[in-house]
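Customer ticket, subject: "Can you confirm the structure for GntR family transcriptional regulator?"

Message body: Hello, I'm evaluating your service for our small team and ran a test protein. I'd like someone to confirm that this is what the system normally returns, since I don't have a reference to compare against.
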Amino acid sequence: MHGSLPGKAAEIRALLLSLIDTLPEGAALPPERELAARWNVARMTLRRAVDELVIEELLVRRHGSGTYTTRPKVARWLGMIGFSEDIRRRGMRPGSTMLEFRHQKAERAAARRLRIPVGDAIIGFTRLRLADNHPMVVERTTLPAAYVPGLQADDLNGSLYDLLTSRYGIDVVSGTSRLEPVMPDAKTAGWLDIPTTQPCLAVHGISFDSRDRVFEYTSAVYRGDRYAFTTELRTTTPSPRANAKGL
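Agent reply: Thanks for trying us out. I re-ran your input and got the following:
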């Protein structure tokens, strides 16, 4: 978005970014009139540059109070990419803490999601996913045990997808996800180190492998103060037949 800024506004943006780098998170920026005088720029030009950084969530305006620095959210792409790879792409160090790990038999709901018979063995585990040691996501995963023989809790300290590919020959090829806003329960909030009043984003999804098997069902709760989701939207080209019918 900032690529459209004219020369002077781009220069002020650079000065603002340099100023932000010197301030701790949550620090107040000097008043606009002071910055405009310091940098010899019109208030309107300064305000436009500030607006851009507010949109990018590097700054936040508080009505009647001022403008403050803030921690940018991680922009998670909705696609077939695991948490570990996504975090590494953003220059952070992924990590995991195993919270729960259990073998059990599939009840009707789990069997339906995984497309396996009721009573088949499944493995369910819950992990706290970290970025630079900061809690980001509580992720609950269920796998058909027959697809991952010998899988143990100690195997799951890193990327699940890397493990599935290297050990079990399972390649992720497609999946579906559903997002919804949620408020965390007390246990989830404790794991994420947030209050129960902090809105979160829940993502529920299934993943398919190259044999068209559902090999995974996930239900993850992302911190709403640290995550934003991004997806790519494309228009579909109407068929000539549809155009001929005026559809």
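A couple of notes from the result: Residues 175 and 207 are 4 Å apart (CA to CA). The first helix runs from residue 7 to 21. Feel free to reply with more questions.
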